[in-house]
Every structure is written in structure tokens, then in C-alpha cells.
Amino acid sequence: MDIMCLENAADICSYYDNCDLDEREALLNRFEEQTELMVDKVASMTALVKHLKTCDHKHLEDDEVATLRNNIFALLNNSLAP
User: Fold this and answer.
1) What is the pLDDT of residues 45-57, one digit of tens each?
2) Which of 23, 31, 64, 79 is the residue whose CA sits 20 to 30 A from 73?
3) Of 80, 24, 34, 51, which Cα lies nearest the Cα of 10?
């Protein structure tokens, strides 16, 4: 629900161009926080799915999740490039 409200606020801000610099910066900061949380979850879930599919019975390792997290961020950053 919080994400939907944040998206609506950003859409209105962008569409009507009625946000000041502080409001835009606050929205950008919240999106950055939410993106980091989502990427962490997606990286963990992806690693767990890999372990389940391969039946390797290893514990989830921090470096494995960190690599996936970095790859996801790289993909996101590339998609935002002009």
C-alpha cells in the first residue's frame, strides 16, 4: 500500500509539475529506499529458488545474495540510462 501511495504522489508531482525541489528529493529518496528493499528480497528469493531447483542443500550465503543484488542493480541502472 505504501508503494502505491508513493507512486501516485510521484505521478501527480510529475504530471502536474507542481512539486518543489524538496518534495521531489523526498520522493526520490523514498523510491531509492524502497528499491533497495525490493532488490534485497528479489536477490534472496532468487538464490533460494536456485537452491531448491538444484537440490544442493547449501545454506544461503551472503556473497551469493550480494552478487545477485549487484546484478539486479546493474540491470536497473542500465535500464535508466538515456
Assistant:
1) 999 998 888 887 7
2) 23
3) 24
d(CA 28, CA 25): 5
For residue 60, what is the DSSP state?
A: P
Considering only CA atoms, which of 39, 23, 30 is closest in space to residue 3?
A: 30
CA dist 34 and 31 (Å) reads 5
The structure's pTM equals 0.76
Nearby residues of 78 by Cβ (< 8 Å), 6 or more positions away: none
Would you list the domain boundaries of the chain? 2-80
Q: 3 pLDDT exceeds 80?
A: yes
CA distance 15 to 4: 16
